[in-house]
Write a structure and sequence with these properties.
Helices cover 48% and strands 16% of the residues. The chain is built from 13 helices and eight strands.
């Protein structure tokens, strides 16, 4: 069998190996030790992490991870691998594999699988650039490359927040929802949060989130009072990008909004933050506050539409040789 000369490496955030306290603690230690993720003085933050968070937080997350865990694996790894398999069928001349920034399979291990390839395109599955996500992928990739004295030509896709195929796929996923077709819900675009100070220091994430939501809303012909952008998944005592999704869910019924449809465009595949935090927790908050209809539009996941938009992105990138 002829060796493929080009490869695609899909990279997602990561997940614990198992939904138990030990595996969750190991994953959190790697994730939260990254200075890209928490930008505090190292001596201060690592003391908090090792003395307070790691001894207590994993036990609180066990039930949440068990809720979302599949029969064999967690959704991030399971769905990302399925997406890679579909992308492989669309790009048969390339070798397509996946890796995680934190946990397994690692970026370093993935590069070892691609040792015979000449060209590697790295595709972080974060449509909107943030230093905490795509930036962290770049850091880990650079470390792994330095250790291997590579001869590869490596290209990293920085973001695809306004790509027409991505926007159309998101709009289609919303438009195909029965709740959207049969009613007129308020569409809430919930993105993962980011500490406000990072946005103030020039991180383009918030602007790219707003651009994505605006383009999808325009594609769906949504008037300005039918949609809004919120931010979820914050932690710690810091101020994050606002408005917070949970606060909005509590407030909307009191403003006369009893029907919402929530989509999370920043999550390429469903995970703890969408399945448990949005579908369970935020639904509960909205209904408890007097809301009547709550619908979550699942992520693009391993759909053919998702695979095709990535294949098109990659093909156009290879043809133009340009960077985003």
């Amino acid at each position: 069998m002829q060796q493929k000369k080009s490869a695609i490496l899909l990279v997602n955030l990561g997940t614990p190996d198992r939904p138990d306290e030990e595996a969750i603690r190991r994953y959190l230690k790697q994730f939260l030790s990254d200075p890209r993720v928490v930008k505090l003085p190292r001596w201060f933050w690592l003391s908090i992490l090792n003395l307070i968070i790691l001894p207590t937080r994993p036990a609180k997350l066990v039930e949440k991870y068990q809720l979302i865990w599949g029969t064999k694996d967690g959704p991030i790894r399971n769905i990302t691998q399925a997406l890679a398999r579909r992308l492989q069928t669309l790009l048969p001349d390339k070798k397509v594999i996946c890796a995680m920034t934190y946990g397994k399979p690692s970026i370093a291990g993935a590069l070892d699988e691609l040792i015979e390839c000449q060209n590697i395109m790295v595709v972080p599955l974060f449509p909107q650039y943030a230093s905490t996500t795509t930036g962290a992928v770049q850091d880990e990739l650079n470390r792994a490359l330095l250790e291997r004295e590579p001869t590869w030509q490596v290209d990293l896709l920085n973001n695809y927040h306004s790509d027409p195929g991505y926007i159309d796929s998101l709009a289609s996923s919303i438009g195909e929802s029965m709740a959207f077709r049969e009613r007129s819900p308020k569409v809430v675009f919930s993105f993962h949060g980011l500490p406000k100070i990072q946005a103030e220091r020039g991180d383009p994430y918030a602007l790219q989130c707003q651009t994505t939501a605006s383009l999808v809303a325009a594609t769906l012909n949504l008037p300005s009072d039918r949609w809004l952008v919120t931010y979820q998944s914050r932690f710690g005592p810091f101020t994050w990008l606002k408005p917070y999704t949970a606060s909005v869910m509590k407030d909307l019924p009191g403003q006369g909004v009893k029907d919402v449809l929530v989509v999370c465009p920043g999550f390429a595949v469903d995970c703890l933050e969408t399945i448990e935090e949005i579908k369970v927790l935020n639904r509960r908050l909205f209904l408890a506050a007097g809301g009547e209809f709550f619908q979550y539009v699942k992520a693009l996941n391993a759909s053919w539409a998702h695979a095709k938009l990535l294949a098109d992105l990659i093909t156009r990138r290879n043809s133009s040789g340009s960077s985003d």
